[in-house]
Each structure stands twice: as C-alpha cells, then as structure tokens.
C-alpha cells in the first residue's frame, strides 16, 4: 500500500454519482419512511475510550433491527469485553491483535487493512462505519461513514498553543485523504466539526451526531467522599495533571481510572492522586455511582462517553471551560479555566463543603444527560447510513458502466 494522496472533488464525483443513482433507484422501490435494514461493519479500539461508545451504538442499532459486525484492533479483548459484546444480540465481535497505527505506514497497518478488507468480503456490509481516520484507504466496496471523534490539529493548538508542526505534514495529508475518501463525515460536537473544517477546509458531506449513553439499571447507593475522574494522564488534552497539582489542597481523595500504567513522564505529575488503572465496566459503574463529584479540567474535548456516564450516575461535574464541553454541558456543570489550578481547587473545595450544591449540580447533569440517549444516537446513525447506503429491499438493476465507478 503506497502513500495515500488526498483525492480531489473531481476524482470523487463518479463514486458520488454512483451512490446517488443507486440511492434514487432503491428509494424509489422502497416507499417506507423507516430507515432500511443495514449490515454495518464498524471499527473500534479495545484499548481506548471508544470501546464503550461502540458497544452503546451497537446495542442501539441491533435493538432497531440492524446487524453490526464490530472489528477491533488495539489488542485481543479481555474476558470482560468479550462478555459485554456477547450480551448484545445481533452484534458479532471480530477481534484482532493489531495495534492502532496512528496512520503511520508500516507492515502492521497494511496487515490490519488486509484483514479488514477480507472481513468485509466475508460479511458483505451495506455500510462501513470507521471510528477514526485510519483505514479509509482500504478498497471498500460499500459506502463509508467516518466518525471524527477528535481533531488532532485542534488538540495540538489547545495543548501547545501553536499549529501542528511541519514534521506532522504526512499525518495531515493522511487525515485529509481519509476525510475525502469518506462518503459522510460525522463529528460528535459542532466544535469538533468546526475544527476539522477550519484545518481541512469544507467537507463534501458532514454532520453532527451527539454521543449518547443510557443509564445502567443499578440501585443508587449512598455517595462516598471522593472525587472521581477517568482518562489517560499521557493525553495532555485531558489535563489530568491539573488534578495532581491540586490534590494536596482538596480534602477528599482524587481517584482516577486510566487505560494503563503510568508512564515515567506522567507519574510525577499525578503524585497525590489515587490511580485505579483500567477498570471493567462493572468496576467503573461501582466507582461512578458512589462518586459525588466527577472532575475533568480538559483543555480539549474528550472522546467517548465518560462524561455522559458520570452525569447519569448523578455526579456533579467540574469541567474545563472549553467550547466543546460548553456545547453539551453549559448550565449543568461548573466550568473552570483548564490552565488555572487555583480555580479548579476552589471549585472542588466549594462542592465538597456544600452537599446541597453537589446534589443540585448532580441533578442538573443527570437531566442534561438524559437528552442524549443511546437510542437517539442509534436512530441518527441509522438515518445517516440510509442516506449513503439504503439497503436493497427490492432488486435494483444498475448499468455495468455505473457500477464500474465504484472504488474497488
């Protein structure tokens, strides 16, 4: 597989024309207003926060009658992850040991692309759902929906205050190529989509579909006395080091769940914080339901569903005052400047000292999170799939010349 070059709009027109012709024919044969049944091939990373997002979406889609094949990289799922996936009727988990490539050209990335291509040949999906920018350059024979859960160039500016370095030019080219190869680009917030368009230019087809999460049907225990958070301390966008900076001034323990062990460069910054390591779904629910406060002083909007889960567990939220978090949680959380450790310490001290305030903000967060259900997220994705890949509920004949325009 050679270096992926960005495709021009003119190069993509034949594929767009083929999709438009097919969709018009199929929709003409299917007068129903219900989104057609889809067979979705979805990618996910077992080691990232998007694992739970993929399960929530997969559960919502299968409940609506769609089929989901979840193809994972990032390492073989552990026993808990297999159990979580097996519990979703209609979802098939296809696991691999390939590691995420960060879009670098290497033998493992090529092997993962071949594996995905072979899997698609076997499954014959009606739509491919990519969670991230990697593998958009596979010769997919089905329309591609790409979810940009974050924008690396926006992340870099938020963390470092400068544009992405010139040494990252190849990375930028791969992102641009992936966006142009997708038939539809989805972002979880308007802020994320604006960042993509600011750095990559106008997108051919794009929309916002907010992340959604359903509350666990668990008894509500008595709240404990600790502040909870989750994320990767090595991701400076999460800004978990700010919790380490204020730990000595906060009366309650600060407890952080993270995807792995601390790296040498982050261990010192998290001194004073109780690091819980990677938690299973059940363990995370145990900590969340008992946490009165969830703190994430992020500099850049986090991917995944951690904030939704915290809000549904009735945690009062203390968040970094950034555009993407304001977009979802404005009026339902306490916001602090992510570069102001004193403001973070004061906000936590204030909530710890005032039980009524904690309960008020917890209820505000819970009510807000209920707006973003998994079923609503699933319905929005099903509608998006239908626009680019309506299933053939009636046989539709396409001229050989038209079908030859496919990217295959």
Give an overview of the whole structure.
- The protein is an alpha/beta fold and 408 residues long.
- The chain folds into 2 domains: 226 residues, Rossmann fold; 143 residues, Glycogen Phosphorylase B (Rossmann fold, 3-Layer(aba) Sandwich).
- The protein is 43% helix and 14% strand.
- A 7-stranded parallel sheet has the order 3-2-1-4-5-6-7, sandwiched between helices. Strands 10-9-8-11-12-13 form a 6-stranded parallel sheet, sandwiched between helices.
- Helix 8 links the parallel strand 8 and strand 9.
Write the layout of secondary structure elements.
Layout: H1 9-29, E1 39-45, H2 50-63, E2 67-73, H3 79-86, E3 91-95, H4 107-123, E4 127-131, E5 144-147, H5 152-160, H6 169-181, E6 184-187, H7 190-200, E7 206-208, E8 227-230, H8 241-246, E9 254-257, H9 264-267, E10 274-277, H10 281-290, E11 293-296, H11 306-312, E12 316-320, H12 323-329, E13 334-336, H13 341-353, H14 355-369, H15 374-388, H16 400-403
Parallel strand pairs: 1-2, 1-4, 2-3, 4-5, 5-6, 6-7, 8-9, 8-11, 9-10, 11-12, 12-13
Helix pairs in contact: 2-15, 11-14
Q: Could you spell the SSE succession in H and E letters? A: HEHEHEHEEHHEHEEHEHEHEHEHEHHHH
Cα end-to-end separation: 14 Å
The main pleated sheet reads as: 7 strands, parallel
Walk across the major sheet and give the strand order.
Answer: 3-2-1-4-5-6-7
Structural class: alpha/beta
Shape: globular
Fraction of helical residues: 40-55%
CATH topology of the largest domain: Rossmann fold
Number of domains: 2
* Low-pLDDT sequence parts: 1-29, 392-408
Q: For this structure, what is the CATH class of the largest domain?
A: Alpha Beta
CATH architecture of the largest domain: 3-Layer(aba) Sandwich
Count of helical segments?
A: 16
Instruction: Estimate the strand proportion.
Output: 5-15%
CATH superfamily of the largest domain: Glycogen Phosphorylase B
The whole-angstrom Rg is: 22 Å
Mean pLDDT across the residues is 85
In total, the number of strands is: 13
């Amino acid at each position: 597989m050679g270096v992926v070059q960005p495709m021009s709009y003119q190069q993509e027109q034949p594929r767009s024309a083929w999709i438009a012709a097919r969709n018009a024919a199929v929709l003409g044969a299917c007068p129903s207003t219900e989104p057609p049944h889809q067979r979705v091939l979805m990618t996910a990373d077992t080691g990232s926060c998007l694992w739970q997002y993929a399960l929530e979406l997969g559960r919502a889609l299968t409940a609506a009658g769609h089929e989901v094949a979840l193809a994972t990289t990032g390492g073989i799922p552990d026993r808990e992850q297999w159990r979580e996936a097996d519990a979703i009727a209609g979802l098939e988990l296809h696991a691999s040991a390939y590691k995420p490539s960060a879009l670098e050209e290497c033998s493992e990335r090529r092997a993962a692309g071949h594996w995905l291509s072979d899997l698609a040949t076997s499954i014959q999906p009606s739509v491919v759902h990519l969670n991230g920018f990697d593998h958009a350059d596979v010769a997919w024979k089905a329309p591609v929906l790409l979810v940009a859960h974050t924008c690396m160039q926006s992340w870099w500016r938020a963390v470092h205050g400068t544009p992405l370095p010139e040494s990252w030019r190849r990375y930028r080219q791969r992102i641009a190529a992936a966006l142009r190869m997708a038939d539809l680009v989805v972002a979880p917030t308007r802020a994320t989509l604006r960042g993509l368009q600011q750095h990559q230019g106008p997108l051919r087809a794009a929309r916002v579909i907010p992340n959604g999460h359903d509350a666990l049907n668990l008894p509500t225990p008595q709240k404990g006395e600790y502040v909870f958070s989750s994320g990767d301390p090595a991701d400076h966008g999460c800004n978990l080091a700010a919790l380490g900076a204020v730990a000595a001034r906060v009366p309650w323990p600060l407890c952080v769940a993270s995807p792995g062990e601390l790296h040498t460069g982050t261990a010192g910054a998290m001194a004073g914080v109780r690091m819980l390591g990677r938690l299973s779904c059940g363990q995370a629910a145990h900590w969340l339901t008992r946490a009165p406060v969830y703190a994430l002083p992020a500099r850049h909007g986090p991917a995944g569903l951690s904030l939704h889960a915290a809000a549904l567990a009735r945690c009062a939220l203390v968040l970094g005052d950034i555009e993407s978090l304001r977009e979802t949680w404005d009026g339902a959380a306490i916001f602090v400047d992510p570069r102001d450790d004193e403001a973070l310490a004061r906000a936590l001290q204030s909530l710890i000292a005032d039980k009524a305030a904690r309960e008020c903000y917890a209820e505000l967060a819970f009510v807000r999170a209920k707006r973003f259900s998994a079923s609503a997220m699933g319905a929005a994705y099903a509608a998006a799939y239908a626009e680019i890949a309506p299933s053939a509920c009636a046989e539709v004949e396409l001229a050989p010349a038209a079908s030859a325009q496919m990217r295959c």
